[in-house]
# Entry
Amino acid sequence: MLGLGIGLAVGLAAMGVGIGQGITGNGAMHGMARQPEASGRIQTGMLIALAFMELVFLLSFVTALILQGKLTTGA
# Structure
């Protein structure tokens, strides 16, 4: 069951981050198209949001690696 949980955790985290990044990019592109003069501020906010989303995925990946270590040692 731990192996199944590891796979589900990484898979769902990757799917959620991918969807979130797509929505963020879409919103930023629409915002820049509507207000080209504010594109610098929109792009900065988008990049910060994308970095936080990647951090969430990396934390779930590291957690999965730690759990995999527990799975292989049997502890």
Q: What stands out?
A: The chain has one domain: 11-70. The radius of gyration is 17 Å.
